[in-house]
Amino acid sequence: MIDTFHAKRPVYPLFGFFAALLIFAAGLATAKHVEGMWYLLAVWVWFLLFGYWRSCLIIIPCAAVVAGIFAGITYLSSRELGATLAAVSRSAAVCLAVLPGLSLPAVKLTRNLSQIHVPRSVTLGMMIVLSFAPLLGKEIKRIREAMRTRGAGSLLNPKVLYRALLVPFAARLVNISDTLSLSVETRGFRTGKVPYTIYHPVKLTMRDVIFLLGLVAGSAAIIVLCFI
Amino acid sequence: MNAVEMKNVRFAYVKDTWVLRGVNFTAEYGKITLLSGMSGDGKSTLLSIICGIIPNMTPGTLEGETVVAGNDVRGMKASEISRTVGCVLQNAELQIVQNIVEDEVAFGCENLAMPQEMIEKRVKAACAMMEIDPSLKTRTLSGGQKQRLITAATLAMGQKIIILDEPLANLDKEGTHTLMTALRRLTARGYCVIVSEHRLDMVLPFVDDVWNISEGVVRKVEDKQAYLRSQAEIIRDICSPPQEKIPLLTLTGITKSFGKREILRGVDLTVYKGERLLILGQNGCGKTTLMRIIARLERQDGGKIEQFIDKKPGSRRASRRWFREVGVVYQNPNYQLFMPTVRKEIEFGAESKEYADEIIDMFDLHSLETRHPQSLSEGQKRRVSIAAVVASRPKILLLDEPTVGQDYAGLQRLVDVLGKIHMRDNNTMITVTHDLRPAQALCDRAVLIEGGKAAKEGDKNLVQTYFTK
């Protein structure tokens, strides 16, 4: 949900979530088979074809690090190449499953959930939480900068860490959440069964159907190939 | 006809400590009503009662009667009141919910269940009115642009009563003029607009009624012009420009982009020792970015900086030694305050307790000494953050919008103190401000950032021309 990962035309949000579950399940199930790796590679290419190139490229180093760590631990504990490759597959499956969610702007997800009548208190809360993540990173960066400008000392010193980072950070969090809730309330947000409009509802297109059908077909094929 | 009427309203955040002591206040449809007063005197409290934030979300003891659009708001939720009252709160940055400007402006309209076509029209109209591009990402906006965005989001909702709490904070003169003209147009169509603002020189020409709040009581100001003269006079400069021109920093061809947005496109600028440089420019033109690059908090994409401040500048990251020489006052004071009391905050950077006492005295912080810095009003926080940075006696002082949230008396005092410290320490000051009143008193030389470059350089006359053209 971080801006850098956003796809220009993400698939229908609910399809994206279903796709994530499918990749996760099929990836884990076929992790011990060499075909499983080909399946994950095909999924990666499938995402590329549907315009997820940015997140597809960014995920490679992340997946390499995660897979490296788990493969290393597995190899050290089992000394088996097969188990190590399975660990790599599982890590790659998890990273790929995260991809549709990462590439989706929060507003599309919340609008989609609102369309299927998920309570607005849930969807709005979700949106605020999702937009909080990049905001928190920025806040920590700013506070650390401010600490440096005022010569607050090293973060390795617990007293400094508490006083100059944690206290302002907590104060900022309270301030942000208070102001956000005021902002939402004073802009007419109400919970319960009240009428509201969804500006730009998310529409299901043939492209989304093709994406999901392709993924379902691929997942079914790999399960058949590995187990039947 | 009265849109808002308050009768004998009293309010206390803490039991028996009355912030408002029997307020009788009215605001009419078809008029812009200004609420003016000192920092921390209760302007935001009064507005929060009208919006329903008090007592619904901020608890306290509330007495008296508040009638908004003919309804007694007692017992009404803030979201119910918001159907008739549009509210632009302070701290625009923290109120943004969505990632894209268009979605943010549409958010309130969605909550009011407007038809899609109407939302689209209103979003377009509000964005055009506040001159903000609906396709921009909200997190990449400058402070002034965020203020415009939140104002546009409220105006799009179309309530007949609009409340704006310090809407001009961080707005440049064009933005201010745009907003005030838009509000004037709305009142001509029968809207009631209530504004709380310190920059009286900018708002008074547009307002119909003026109320002053002091010691918890509001009074209507009868002689608007006399009030303007007493609150909006240009502050006199007590310093003289440096005699010598010894370069301290030389910036050559500085460029900086954020994503695809090119902010600085080759800034050439020399800062001389002991001068007070004022950076002028519209919202989003890159003033803060330039300050951050000078402070070594941000790295430029291209260009070269030659500095004569620190002989051993070290690696890419600025060292602690650097920040002992270069004091940075942030646009947002909340980041820089971390000690448990105002006194400790000042003492933290001060060379001695005696000097901390002197600074507390100069900035008139005695009454706030034992308060937690985060519990202060925004204007008070800003004063404390400036005092805390100044207490460490930096040779270069970078001030990003230091006057926001200051009442006129506070503003005069602040500028006077900065001037006295400048004369005594012969420090170099670089200031960004959108406020005309203190601008000339903070300036020996001014530079105008336009089109990503230092487009013009000049003395106080440039400041005068920039603000009055």
Give the C-alpha Rg of chain A. Answer: 22 Å
**How many strands, which pairing sense, and closed or not: the largest β-sheet of chain B?**
6 strands, mixed
**Structural class based on helices, strands and sheet pairing of chain A:** mainly alpha
Tally of helical segments of chain B: 17
Q: Could you characterize what this model shows?
A:
The complex is a heterodimer of chains A (228) and B (469). Chain A has 228 residues and is mostly helical. Chain A is built from 8 helices and no strands. The longest helix of chain A is centred in the middle third of the chain and has 30 residues, at 120-149. Chain B folds into 2 domains: 2-232, P-loop containing nucleotide triphosphate hydrolases (Rossmann fold, 3-Layer(aba) Sandwich), CATH 3.40.50; 247-468, Rossmann fold (3-Layer(aba) Sandwich), CATH 3.40.50. The chains are: A mainly alpha (228), B alpha/beta (469). Chains A and B meet through helix 6 and helix 7 of A and helix 4, helix 5, helix 6, helix 11 and strand 15 of B.
What's this, in brief?
In chain A, 75% of the residues lie in helices and 0% in strands.
What topology emerges from the helices and strands here?
The complex is a heterodimer of chains A (228) and B (469).
Chain A: H1 13-29, H2 34-49, H3 53-78, H4 81-102, H5 106-115, H6 120-149, H7 158-186, H8 206-227
Chain B: E1 2-14, E2 17-28, E3 32-37, H1 43-51, H2 53-56, E4 61-68, E5 71-72, H3 78-81, E6 85-88, H4 101-111, H5 116-129, H6 143-157, E7 161-165, H7 173-188, E8 192-196, H8 200-203, E9 209-214, E10 217-221, H9 224-232, E11 247-258, E12 261-272, E13 276-280, H10 287-294, E14 302-307, H11 320-325, E15 326-329, H12 342-349, H13 353-362, H14 378-390, E16 396-400, H15 408-425, E17 428-432, H16 436-439, E18 445-450, E19 453-458, H17 460-468
Helix pairs in contact in B: 4-5, 4-6, 5-6, 12-13, 12-14
